[in-house]
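User: Predict structure, ligand D-malate.
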Amino acid sequence: MAINILISDPLSEDGIYPLRQEKELDLNIVIETGLTPDALKAKIKDFDVLLVRSQTKVTRDIIEAADNLKLIGRAGVGVDNIDLDAATEKGIIVVNAPDGNTNSAAEHTTAMIMSLARHIPHAHMSLQEGRWDRKKFVGVELKNKTLGVIGFGRIGQEVAHRAKGNRMNVIAYDPFLTAEKAEKLGVDFGSVEDVVKVADFITVHTPLLKETKHMINKDIFALMKDDVRIINCARGGIIDEEALYDAIVAGKVAGAALDVMEEEPFVGNRLLDLPQVIATPHLGASTIEAQESVAVDVSNDILSYFNIGTVRNP
Ligand code: MLT
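Assistant: Predicted complex:
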């Protein structure tokens, strides 16, 4: 019997090559992106596998309608767009690709830090608008500044590595970070409060969980140094956007670089009206290499599940 696979977000065609060339299993691959929640709900009952990126919201409602679903593959790290409790209750396995986009996310974060420090997007726009404005775009160096990294998993560590290449000092917070590990990685470590008190740039790299929602809030902003710069290429919601807005308007925060926000797409978000803010539309993992890699990882998991009954990363 055919195994029906629905791909509901744009995925790298090279990345799903392992599925395309599979000969033993009878795979029926359907690609339909941009489905409304109702359309997905109506469709999902015919499928054994749902393969998504971050756009498709795999809600309880969708999962309850998914009578044949055995596996949800997330081509990326964050699984906050999937209702894990609902999937577990139905015995549906959820697999992600935790490593495939680490490098791209770290590179994007580094690009955001540099763009923020040197006003690159605004300077470029100003030139396009016909101005030669050198005084307005005086930046700051990264050398000898302190980067605070909140969340020191794979991506946080890669960002720190690059920051050290730019001769920054790094101080990190992570609930799993120990003194030995911090020393080995050549960074200082402390609580969130310790980190934000000394950092000139603060970048967040935690998943979005109950515990991390709005962890960077009004009280935490109050502890920061004046003229701090904030970067979020992880998940919207880790930073309380109202508190960030107020801190920028009050002159506490000199700039923010945001790749993610609580509601996406975030066109029209009032933070975008502030000249201190630069933003990209959730592009952290959007490279040819990362997209191929995450799609290959989940494709291999699907094959492994149907061939041998287990997955690499459930
Ligand atoms: C992730 O969680 O892997 C990233 O946010 C990338 C994506 O949007 O797929």
